Amino acid sequence: MAIEQQFQPHRRDRVRVFIDFWNLQLAFNSREAESTGNGDARFEIDWRSFPQAMASEAARIVGLRDYSYDGAIVYASYKVGDTDARLKKWLTTWLDRQPGIQVVVKERRSKRIPTCPSCRKSIEQCPHCDEPITATEEKGIDTAMVTDMVRLAWEDAYDVGVVVSSDSDFVPAVEFLDSRGLKLIQAGFPPSGAHLATSCWASFDIFSMREKFRRQ
Predict the structure, then answer these.
(1) DSSP E strands: which ranges in 79-207?
(2) What is the Cα–Cα distance from 162 to 143, expressed in whole angstroms?
(3) Bigger pLDDT: 127 or 143?
(4) For residue 68, with 0-12 CB atoms within 10 Å meaning exposed, 13-18 middle and 19 or more buried, which class applies?
(5) Is 57 within a domain?
(6) Is residue 120 part of a domain?
(7) Is residue 184 included in any domain, yes or no?
(8) Among candidate residues 118, 117, 106, 104, the one with its CA nearest the CA of residue 149
């Protein structure tokens, strides 16, 4: 028996990355605008290197010398119409085809028109500019991400998970997985997302390492 155990292959710890696309991109744009003093600044992510950089930093924090990057899942939404047609095409025909990256895309839904708290009538136009009030919201993105985090953990598909988000909605899932012995590392933009960061096993600042994956 001792001889059989001696020759059993060593299984490397597996790191998987879960990316909340809009939470990441909007936070990046905000920090880039602050750091450059340009309100219109946008941070261009090199998606060929970004997921691996997240996995590498999480592995370093955990202390893994020998690990396996088992891919990333990107969760994104789009609005129906010409405005987001290009985004949807990029997500489904380019990003989803990159090695190790899977994309979950969902259509954004229209928000209910706000109502006056006094008379309860709908406010269909802005009282200042007379433009119609329209807004959309993500439906199902957080649920899809949580479902995959729990499902893949149940299937024993990863040992360390990187949660790229600052959204506190993920706290219950993180706490549940932590109670089952998995290490969840939050990648965010401190001090934003402090609740999620403290619920995870550890966390790190994405913006401080941004030059590793800035698209040229």
Answers:
(1) 101-107, 109-110, 136-137, 160-164, 183-188, 202-205
(2) 17
(3) 143
(4) middle
(5) yes
(6) no
(7) yes
(8) 104
Phi-psi domain of 63 (left: phi exceeds 0; alpha: psi -120 through 50; beta: other): left
- What's the rounded Cα separation, in Å, for the pair 109 and 215? 31
- For residue 75, give the CATH number of its domain: 3.40.50.1010
Residue 5 lies in a domain: no
Number of folded domains in the chain? Answer: 1
pLDDT for the residue 63:
95
Q: Which residues contact residue 3 at a Cβ distance below 8 angstroms, ignoring those fewer than 6 apart?
A: none
pLDDT category, 108, cuts 50, 70, 90?
confident
Domain of 206 in residue numbering reads as 13-109+138-212
pTM for this structure? 0.83
**Residues 168-201: pLDDT tens digits?**
999 999 999 999 999 999 999 999 999 999 999 9
Conformational region of residue 50, where left means phi above 0, alpha means psi within -120 to 50, and beta covers everything else: alpha
